[in-house]
Design a protein that fits this description.
Radius of gyration: 17 Å
Helix content: 25-40%
CATH class: Alpha Beta
Oligomer: single chain
Length: 225
C-alpha cells in the first residue's frame, strides 16, 4: 500500500538576528491510509513548523513532502492550493472561523471557493454529521468553544480529504468537551478511512492513535510513553 503521506529528509531553519536557528533536521515520516499518528513534543520544538510544511503553507529548505504521491515542494502556490482543497483538511486549536460568516457558511467556504454550486447543502449535511444541524445560521460568537470546534471539524472534512492535520484540537476546551471533540474526530476519520496526523501534548490522546512519535532535536523518534 502506498502511503498517503511521505516526508523525506526535510530540513527547515530560520534566521533570528545573527543566528541561524535549526528547527527541523533531516526529518522523515510516512503515514498509511486510515492511520492515526500522534506527534508529541514540548512547546517550541517545531511541531507547528512541521504542520505548515505538511500543509504546503511553507516550504522546507530541502527534502520532499509528498501527499498521495505528489511532492508539494516542487509545486507552484496555485498547485499547492489545489492539493489542499482536494486532499487535506486542517483543524486548528484556535478554530480559525470567519467571524462574519454563519456556521453553514464557514463550513461551505472551502468548496464554495473551489467552484461548488451546492456548497450550502453539503455544508448542512457536514454540520448534521457533527451534531450541529440546529446551529446552521449561528455565527461563531453565538457558539460555545466545543461547537466552534465541531464547525471547524466539519469544515476540515467537507472536501472529503485523504489526510487531516490536527493541531491541538482540544487544547482550548475543558476536559469533558475536549473528550467529546476527540471522540468525534477519531470516529469520523475511522468511518471515512481518513489519515489523521495529530499534534498534541496529551499522552492519553497519543495512546489512542495507532502510533506516537516524539519531535526532539529537529527529528522524529518513537514515543515510549
Amino acid at each position: 500500500m502506498n502511503p498517503i503521506l511521505k516526508v523525506h529528509q526535510i530540513h527547515k531553519s530560520y534566521q533570528q538576528g545573527d543566528h541561524q536557528v535549526e528547527v527541523l533536521q533531516n526529518l522523515s515520516i510516512e503515514a498509511d491510509r486510515g492511520e492515526k499518528v500522534a506527534i508529541l513534543g514540548p512547546s517550541g520544538c517545531g511541531k507547528s513548523t512541521l504542520l505548515s510544511l505538511l500543509a504546503g503553507l511553507d516550504k522546507p529548505d530541502r527534502g520532499s513532502v509528498e501527499i498521495d504521491g505528489r511532492d508539494l515542494v516542487r509545486m507552484s502556490e496555485d498547485e499547492r492550493s489545489i492539493i489542499r482543497s482536494q486532499k487535506l483538511g486542517i483543524v486548528f486549536q484556535q478554530y480559525h472561523l470567519m467571524r462574519n460568516l454563519t456556521a453553514v457558511e464557514n463550513v461551505g467556504l472551502p468548496i464554495e471557493l473551489s467552484g461548488s454550486s451546492n456548497f450550502r447543502d453539503r455544508a448542512s449535511l457536514a454540520l448534521e454529521g457533527v451534531g450541529l444541524s440546529h446551529r446552521l445560521g449561528h455565527f461563531p460568537s453565538e457558539l460555545s468553544g466545543g461547537e466552534c470546534q465541531r464547525v471547524a471539524i466539519a469544515r476540515a472534512l467537507i472536501g472529503r480529504p485523504s489526510l487531516v492535520l490536527a493541531d491541538e484540537p482540544s487544547g482550548n476546551l475543558d476536559q469533558k468537551t475536549g473528550e467529546e471533540i476527540m471522540n468525534l474526530l477519531f470516529g469520523l476519520c475511522h468511518d471515512h478511512k481518513i489519515t489523521l496526523l495529530l499534534v498534541t501534548h496529551n499522552q492519553e490522546l497519543a495512546r489512542r492513535c495507532d502510533r506516537a512519535l516524539l519531535l526532539k532535536d529537529g527529528a522524529l523518534q518513537n514515543f515510549e510513553g
